Every structure is written in C-alpha cells, then in structure tokens.
C-alpha cells in the first residue's frame, strides 16, 4: 500500500474501515444494550400495568397514560416532587453554589495553612465513598450518643427525625461543595488581577469588586456549575442512607420514591413512568448544559 | 464607623468564618479518624486512649473480606472492561475518519449523563431480571461499564488525538504490520491515559452503592458499600468497632488513588454515574 495515497493519510495506522468498525463495535454494543436500550424501553414500560407480583405479573396490560395520571393524583408523588425541588434548590443551586464560590473567593487571599487545610477537608468530604459519609453523618446526628448533641449539650434531640429535610440539605452541601469550590477557584484565577487592582484603586469595596469585576467574568462558569450540580443532586440516592426517605416520607425525594414504589413495591410499570419523568428532567438539564458549553466555545 | 475598627471587625469576622467552616467540614470526619482507634467506640467521636483492638472485629468478621473481594471484583472487572473497550473504540475513532463521529460521541456522552443508575433503576432491574442476570455480579459489571464507557471513550480519544501520528507512520515505513504498530507503538504511548481512565472507573464503581444494592440480592455477593449497612447486632445497635475499622479500610484506597491521580493529572476526576 503506497503511503502517499489520500486513503492512507486518513488512516495512518493502517487499520482499515472494517477493523476500525470492529474496534468500535464492542463498546457500542455494551452502551447500546445497557445504556440506550433501558432508556428507550422505559418509554414502553411506562405505558403498562406491570407488577412483579399479583395480576400484573402474569399478563401486563396496556394502560396508556394511566400511570402518569395515577402519579399526578398520588399525593405521595406530588409531595416527593416538591421535596426534590427543595432538596436540589437548597443544597445544590443555593448551598453548594454559594458556599463553593465563597470558599474559592475567600481562600485566594488566605494564608497557606488555612487554604490547604480547608481544601483538604472539603475534598475529603467529596471523595470518600457515599456509604461511609452517610454513616459518619448518622454518627454525628444520633439521638442519644451523637457528637453534635454532645457538643451542643442537647440530650435526646433527634435531628434526623425532627428535621429530615434540613439534614439531607446540609449533608449534601457538605458532601458536594468541593466541586463548586474547585470550579470557581479555576474560574477566579482567570479574572485578570489588574482589573481587580484598578477597581480597588478607585475605591471599590470587596463587595463592589465582586459584583462589577468578578461576576461578569465568571457568569458562564456559574451557569455551567449550577447545571452540573443540579443534575448530580437530582440523581443523588445518598439521602436514602441517611433518612431512608422517612419519617413517613418526609424526606422522600424522587429517587427514593421510585425505589420504594418499583423495587420494594414491585410496581414496575408505574415506576417506569416515574423513571421516564426523571430521564426527561435529566435530558432538559443536560441539553441546556451542552448549549451553554457550545456558546462558550463559539464565544472564545 | 472608624476605618480601623472596621478593618479589625472584618478581619475577626473572616477568622470566625474560617473557623466555623473548618468545624463544619471536619466534624463529621472526626468519627472516621478517631473511632477505629478508641477503646469502647460509640456514636460519639472521641479518643479516650489508643488501641488497635477494634481491628480484631474486622479480622474476625466472616463477611468483611468477601465483601472487599466483591468490591474488588466489581470495580476491577468494570475498570478492565471499560479501559479495554474504550481504548479500542477511542483509537479507531481517533485514527479513522468516520462520518458523524463527533456527533455520535456527544450523543453518547449526553446519554450517559442522563441515564443514571437512579433514573434508569427500573428498566435496568427489569432487563437484568429477564436476562437472568439479576443477583449476578457480571450483570452489575455490565451495567456500570455501559454507564462509564461514553465518558471513558471521550477522555481516551482526547488522549489519543494528542499522540502524533508520525509515530505510527514511521513504524509502518519500517515495515511494521498493523498489529505490531498497535502492540509496540500505540499501546505504550497511550498507557498513561488508560491508567487514568482505569483509576477513574475503579473509584466510581468502588463507591457505588445504588447499582449493586438494587441488582444484587444475595448478601454474599454484595460489595463493601452495601455490606457496611448490615453490621448491626440483634438489637439493631451498630457494631461500632467493626463499622469504624471497616469504613477506614474501605476508604483509604480511594483517598490514595485520588492523591496519585490528582498529583499527576490535576482535578476533573469525578463525574459519570453517581448515586
């Protein structure tokens, strides 16, 4: 094969179309079967009355949009939807975002010890396995012997039972702030020092510098970060390990609701319908995210 | 307000804020650091002496090592499969021009961030149930591999793209066959990229709770992430000596791997299937 032909230029390794296809095929098959197919299948399953036990197990019947109307009529579902919004809004959009930005902003000027110490702690909260951190928080908040009660001198204060939503929101802020902090640290380092210098010389306070110089520069990063942490928090199952969705569903966010309905309750058709709603919500967030990214690469 | 007082106040405020943040982030971690070494461990994080007795609970418990082994099997199996399939695909996609390649990659990446273990729990469960793969570790490995592959292909293709084509060209000029080029030229060059992706996949699966929790029923097949929640005595009281030492042993590899990868390649480590 002459190495100067255009075909060889495109194919320096001499793979050839057929072999290249053979290289790509195994990955595509696994992705197709275990990622694409389940998502598509959900569309169909959600239209069935399909259960693991009982009448629906023998012969699934077609119920059209019945599962969706049932969901909308189920107070447990609408409550779960509301709790999910509170959880995502409170812990990710507000909590992780604001705390992550504040940490990135304040740590720039901090001493080396404070900066590296705090960074290590925040990062540890993020990289430790989910099962471990969930138990750490159980130990912290335990009703009788928990560290928090011991520190505050309160006895028999059952944090998890009395304030389940607060617990999972604060927990997720603790757990996930690291990502926002890292992203904003990188973003802030791209703000030209001279701009801040000029602002300071002309008498701008720290707050004014932030508003007039920094925020316009990192606006896109804020959007990117918010979308990513929203997507992750929305799909987060770890509150289940802390509260189990309880007491009485008071912290039952949608992932826990689906788990209880479909896997525990065996209502697979109904669970699929809810799953499809989750997938659609994910799709909206992800498409929005990609549009933001594309806008950024075109702008630069 | 007097500017001196104001500066002083804001400085004090800054310190108090920093202290509160340190307390907030450190407090839950204290238990993990102290409890494995304290005599008579409880929920409360304290150190009333130093002992290694708690680790005896770890050694004596018959579930500990099988669960760690299961974690290794799941994480190692998924990581190997992800790296092998992703490397092949990434190489071919990087070197042979296929129409619509970039769109395909983006579509797959988009899909993998949408079809999470949480959102696709029900169809995955039902599919494995009907395939007879429920309660089998190979099912968990395949599901996790499918979720991690798009991001892995994406990362590795970036890596392969940065390797000069002249390497392969010169090897072929000297008469190397495609197989030899692959084995002796390409593989050594992209090995660091494969290692990074492998570690990334390993950590993702090692920490995953939901997927094995839903797809495996038999406790003897469960990985450490799930088994940790079964260490309770008959009265429902946790076995603190066991849980604390187990949590430590189970966490240390993740922290070490993170340190290694972070030192070499910087951040951008997490993502993919979560939950």
Mean pLDDT of chain B, to the nearest integer, reads: 85
Structurally, the number of domains of chain A stands at 2
Order of helices and strands of chain B: HHHHHHHHHHH
Described by strand count, sense and barrel closure, the largest sheet of chain B is: none
- Identify the CATH class of the largest domain in chain A: Mainly Alpha
Number of domains of chain B: 1
Number of strands of chain A: 2
Please state the oligomeric state of the protein chains shown: heterodimer
- Report the CATH C-level class of chain B: Mainly Alpha
Q: Which fold does the CATH topology of the largest domain in chain A refer to?
A: MetI-like fold
Describe this structure in words.
The complex is a heterodimer of chains A (300) and B (275). Chain A is mainly alpha-helical and 300 residues long. Chain A has two domains: 1-37, no CATH class; 74-299, MetI-like fold (Orthogonal Bundle). Helices cover 76% and strands 1% of the residues of chain A. Chain A is built from 15 helices and two strands. A two-stranded antiparallel ribbon of chain A has the order 1-2. Chain A is globular, with a radius of gyration of 25 Å. Chain B is globular and about 70 Å long. Chain B has a single domain (56-265), classed as MetI-like (MetI-like fold). Chain B starts with a helix and ends in a 10-residue tail after the last helix. Helix content of chain B is 71%, strand content 0%. By secondary structure, chain B is mostly helical. The model of chain B is unreliable at 267-275 (pLDDT under 50). Chain B contains eleven helices and no strands. At the A-B interface, α2, α6, α7, α8 and α10 of A face α1, α3, α4, α5 and α6 of B. Chain B: Residues 68-261 form the ABC transmembrane type-1 domain. Chain B: This is Carbohydrate ABC transporter permease. Chain B: Keywords: Cell membrane, Membrane, Transmembrane, Transmembrane helix, Transport.
């Amino acid at each position: 094969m002459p190495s100067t032909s255009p075909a060889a230029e495109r194919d320096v390794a001499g793979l050839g179309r057929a072999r290249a296809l053979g290289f790509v095929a195994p990955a595509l098959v696994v992705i197709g079967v275990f990622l694409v197919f389940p998502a598509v299948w959900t569309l169909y399953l959600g239209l069935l009355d399909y259960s693991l036990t009982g009448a629906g197990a023998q012969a699934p019947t077609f119920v059209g949009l019945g599962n969706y109307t049932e969901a909308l009529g189920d107070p447990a579902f609408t409550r779960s939807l509301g709790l999910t919004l509170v959880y995502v809004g409170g812990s990710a959009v507000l909590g992780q975002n604001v705390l992550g930005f504040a940490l990135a902003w304040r740590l720039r000027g901090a001493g080396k010890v404070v900066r590296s110490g705090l960074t290590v702690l925040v990062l540890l909260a993020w990289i430790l396995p989910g099962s471990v951190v969930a138990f750490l928080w159980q130990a912290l908040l335990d009703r009788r012997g928990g560290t928090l009660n011991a520190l505050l001198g309160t006895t028999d204060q059952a944090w998890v039972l009395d304030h389940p939503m607060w617990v999972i929101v604060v927990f997720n802020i603790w757990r996930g702030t690291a990502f926002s902090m890292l992203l904003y640290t990188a973003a802030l380092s791209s703000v030209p020092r001279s701009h801040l210098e000029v602002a300071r010389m002309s008498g701008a306070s720290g707050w004014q510098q932030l508003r007039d110089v920094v925020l316009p520069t990192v606006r896109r990063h804020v959007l990117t970060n918010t979308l990513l942490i929203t997507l992750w928090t929305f799909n987060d199952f770890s509150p289940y390990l802390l509260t189990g969705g309880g007491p009485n569903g008071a912290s039952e966010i949608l992932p826990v609701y689906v788990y209880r309905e479909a896997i525990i309750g065996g209502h697979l058709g109904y669970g699929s319908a809810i799953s499809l709603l989750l997938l659609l919500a994910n799709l909206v967030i992800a498409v929005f995210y990609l549009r933001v990214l594309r806008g950024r690469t075109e702008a630069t | 307000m007097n500017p001196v007082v104001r500066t002083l106040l804001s400085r004090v405020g800054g310190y108090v804020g920093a202290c509160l943040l340190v307390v907030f982030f450190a407090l839950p971690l204290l238990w993990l650091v102290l409890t494995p070494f304290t005599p008579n461990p409880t929920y409360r994080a304290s150190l009333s002496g130093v002992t290694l007795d708690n680790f005896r609970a770890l050694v004596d418990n018959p579930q500990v090592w099988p669960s760690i082994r299961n974690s290794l099997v799941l994480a190692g199996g998924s990581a190997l499969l992800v790296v092998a399939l992703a490397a092949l695909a990434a190489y071919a996609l990087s070197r042979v021009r296929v129409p619509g390649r970039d769109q395909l990659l983006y579509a797959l990446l988009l899909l993998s961030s949408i079809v999470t273990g949480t959102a696709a729990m029900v169809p995955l469960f039902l599919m494995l149930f009907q395939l007879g793969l429920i309660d089998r570790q190979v099912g968990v490995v395949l599901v996790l591999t499918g979720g991690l592959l798009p991001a892995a292909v994406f990362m590795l293709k970036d890596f392969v793209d940065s390797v000069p084509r002249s390497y392969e060209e010169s090897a072929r000029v000297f008469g190397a066959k495609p197989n030899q080029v692959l084995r002796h030229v390409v593989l050594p060059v992209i090995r660091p990229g494969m290692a990074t992706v492998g570690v990334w996949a390993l950590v993702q699966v090692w920490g995953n709770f939901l997927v094995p929790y839903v797809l495996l029923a038999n406790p003897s097949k469960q990985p450490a992430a799930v088994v940790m929640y079964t260490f309770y005595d008959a009265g429902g009281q946790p076995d603190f000596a066991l849980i604390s030492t187990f949590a430590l042993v189970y966490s240390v590899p993740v922290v070490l791997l993170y340190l290694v990868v972070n030192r070499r390649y910087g951040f951008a480590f997490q993502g993919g299937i979560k939950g």
